[in-house]
Amino acid sequence: MSIGLPHFLVVSTLVFLLGLYCVLTRRNAIGILMGVELILNSANINYLAFSRYGSANYDGQIFAIFVIMLAAAEAAIGLAIVIGIYQTFHTIDVEATETLRG
Amino acid sequence: MMIGLGDILFYLVAGFTVLGAAGVAFSNNIVYSGFAMMAAFMGAAGLYVFLAADFVAIVQVLVYVGGILVLTLFAVMLTHRIADVSISNRSVGRLPALLILGFVGTMMVQAIFRAKWHVLATLPEPMPTTAGIGNAFLTDYALPFELASIVLLSAMLGAVLLSRKELRA
Questions:
Q1: Distance between CA atoms of B65 and B45, rounded to whole angstroms?
Q2: How confident is the model over B10-34, as pLDDT tens digits?
Q3: Residue B85: its pLDDT value, please?
């Protein structure tokens, strides 16, 4: 069996699941952001795989570029917020920053 | 069954990607997680090359490895004493997380192998994609392209505003 669409989908599923695990189990805010980046990467692999195997135009690749762009913006804002939290609470443990909980 | 060189290369790159992602998820030290993330990103760029997306692969290396990863490592260095290892504590707990993962993963794998994907009968030859993507950005995708520049500009300004101490009340 030569390399086909399911191979890429399985790889992206594995990356997605590892990213989800990272988001679920980390209490470190930067660790959670890393998990989100992995999930966005797996979505990109899917976009490009469907673009390669399902169509002959560039739409999937352009969506992947927009995803990369949004990931960059998300990382910049997310890390700025993390640094703001660190300056206020002197930790980035997301369970130590629950002052809004009633 | 004949296994070609391309297939072996694919399995190597895919294994590299998944191992990098596993390193991000399971490493106890956040700095090691960052470096494992580099492996995952480079592996994903290799997969993009296999999918005949040369431009996206280069953008992936430039933006993810050159930008996001460096930014993440900077944030790690700014917020942690490096020797501090007690950071990999859990919020959900390992067992419930693995249960959720097993459930979601089973569903996704079932979907992958049961769905009838629309696949082209003959794949087009891999061609350079940069010119086509550039034309699409300046014609069909002109409005999203401009919106993307606004998003990036406001994200940049917002990041500066959020991380400056004296500007926050």
A1: 10
A2: 999 999 999 999 999 888 888 888 8
A3: 47
pTM of the model: 0.89
Contacts A14 to B, Cβ<8 Å: 18, 21
Residue B92: which of A24, A41, A71 has the nearest Cβ? A24
Hunting for tokens 């991000």 — which residue is that? Answer: B24
Is the CB of A68 less than 8 angstroms away from the CB of B94? no
Question: A20 and B51 in contact by Cβ < 8 A?
Answer: no
ipTM of this complex: 0.88
CB-CB neighbors (< 8 A) of B76 in chain A: 30
Nearest residue of A to residue B15 by CA position? A11
d(Cα B103, Cα A59) in Å, to the nearest integer? 31
Tens of pLDDT along B61-79?
999 988 899 988 888 888 7
Give me the torsion for CA of B38, B42, B48, B50, rounded to 10°: -150
Q: Looking at residue B13, what DSSP letter applies?
A: H
Q: How many CA atoms lie within 13 A of B107 on its CB side?
A: 7
Q: What is the torsion angle, in degrees rounded to the nearest 10, for the CA atoms of residue B55, residue B57, residue B63 and residue B65?
A: -150
